[in-house]
Amino acid sequence: MPRAWHAGPWIAQQGQFFDNWAARPADLPAAAARQAGRTGWAKIVGDWRHDGEPVPVDVLTAVVEAVHAVGGRVAVHTQHRRGGANAVAAGVDSVEHGMCLDPALLNDMAARGTALTPTLATITSSLDVVGRRPDGPGKDWYVSGATAHGPLVVAAAEAGVRILAGTDSWPHGRIADEVRALAAAGLTPHEALGAASWHARPYLGVGNLEPGAPADAVVYPVDPRTDLSVLDSPTAVILRGVPVRS
Fold it and tell me: What is the DSSP string of 150-185?
């Protein structure tokens, strides 16, 4: 089976996020530290809805300090300008989505080692549906943020931010779609593939093609950097030295 790292239940403020999908503790830092102590990660819902208040920067900073103290890392869901600013200022390890993120923060993210997991394919694929909704602040927020998301990701990569390929899709596992979306936005095919492989693996503590690393490989009939459509049809998949598809 593939190796999996998880952050457990989302951790959100009272009144935010989907019902029954998240823990809403009174003490976010303590809850996040307990979760990270179990699995190594905690995921905070940093903001929700276009008119909601983001988790305050002092609370997020306390979350990061508590989680780092137990050797864990913090991922933060954010799609608001203020929520994104709070996440970067708090020193989180990964910004999830990052829609509406202020481009002025990208150099700070790069310097801190904060990764960006933009889920670009899912966000931009919703533009047509959201565009047909009645006019209003929520529609304006999403359309403007999603439209600017591709250029934001490219600017982040150019600033030296580590870009990670994440899906947030249904059905799950559509990582090839995300790689193609990153390339369509302006990343080179090499960098787009790296976001799903050789850049992501060391970020998770798994080596690349080097002595002592797990013998994992996905094999294609041609170099996928010349044709990203082949990502959907690997010739072989090798996991820890064992062929699981050939």
Answer: HHHHHHHHHHTPPB------SSS--HHHHHHHHHHH
Structure tokens at 3: 């190796």
Pairing mode, if any, of strands 41-45 and 22-23?
unpaired
Domain annotation covers residue 224: no
Q: Are 57 and 90 in contact (CB under 8 A)?
A: yes
CB neighbourhood size of 229 (10 A): 10
Token pair, residue 136, equals: 């209003």
| Residue showing tokens 């970067």 | 88
Q: Is residue 227 part of a domain?
A: no
- What is the pTM (predicted TM-score) of this model? 0.94
Domain that holds residue 177: 10-211
Q: How far apart are CA 243 and CA 239, in angstroms?
A: 6
Cis-peptide into 171, omega within 30 deg: yes
Count of domains for the chain: 1
The tens digit of pLDDT for each residue in 185-222 reads 999 999 999 999 999 999 998 888 888 889 999 999 99
3-state helix, strand, coil in the chain (%, to 5): 40, 15, 45
Residues near 92 by beta carbon (within 8 Å), at least 6 away in sequence:
44, 60, 64, 74, 75, 76, 114
Whole-number Å distance between alpha carbons of 173 and 120: 14
Task: Please choose, from the candidates 156, 196, 150, 206, the residue with its C-alpha nearest in 3D space to the C-alpha of residue 176.
Answer: 196
pLDDT digits (tens, 9 = 90+) for 103-121: 999 999 999 999 999 999 9
